[in-house]
Amino acid sequence: IMIFKLLNSHVIFKKRVIQAKKDITKADNISDAINISLNEQGSIDIDRVSSLLGQTAEKTIELHYGSLFYDTDGGIVDRATYLSGNVKKKLAEAREIAKSNQVYEANVSELEKVIPKDVIANQIDVNIGARWIPTDIYRKFISELLNSNVEVAYSNGTDTYKIKGNSTVESTQKYGTERKEAYKIIEDSMAGKVTIVQDAVEGPDGKIKYVFNQVESEKAQEKQELINENFEFWIWKDQERRDNLGALYNAKFNTNVKKRHDGSHITFDGINSEVTLAKHQLDGAAMLIANKG
Fold this sequence. Notes:
Layout: E1 5-6, H1 30-41, H2 46-53, H3 57-63, E2 68-70, E3 76-78, H4 79-82, E4 85-86, H5 87-98, H6 104-114, H7 135-146, E5 151-155, E6 160-164, H8 169-174, H9 182-190, E7 198-202, E8 208-212, H10 214-234, H11 239-253, E9 256-257, E10 275-276, H12 279-290
Antiparallel strand pairs: 1-10, 2-3, 4-9, 5-6, 7-8
Helix pairs in contact: 1-2, 2-3, 5-6, 9-10
């Protein structure tokens, strides 16, 4: 696939097609000045932008705040950059800074307009064992389900849950089997595993081997499916729990706005004047420049 299209394949024999680099010393407006800086460096050089406009850096920021923003660290960024990425984190930081620096009130106002709309709690797909769910939620669910006062512990080192609880009718019969108690079945679910049952069999050499027991495994898997279905119903049943988990999910995962890279302003020094790049190619180049490759 050709990256670009030549208007005339023989044009190089007729005229100069490689253009010399042009030194840009002036911009007509803030948009052009910003684009020149982005084209040259992939970021905002406020001294370059203000020079193009014939202004001081301070005056440029004052007159064009909204096209330019102070970032959290005090640096200057363009609007598209500031109003993208983790905008919830930026909003929280801007609100804090605005308490002592009223310039950031404009940051707060603009960020509030782009905050992603919350995902409704019952539209969130949650499997038992999802790591963002607080351990205490799992403790309450398992305690209610198995009619037992259980303990649930999570290990960061092994990324596993361990459940301790009393043996009850619910744990051994209703949600467990003779070979697999409900606590172990739930631990499997929380690890993303399908529960299986194995029999210890002594081989001819006297060594113990473990053999898959299909009948008992199917019994345990039926209980596992039942437990998972109960959790999916239970998790959103209580209004307060639904509100709290919905807020937690949106705060952790529904935080970002995707940056749109516009390459329409990009120029390429030395490029063949007969070459026309497509919009997606220019936008891709803008992304590479902004990300420094």
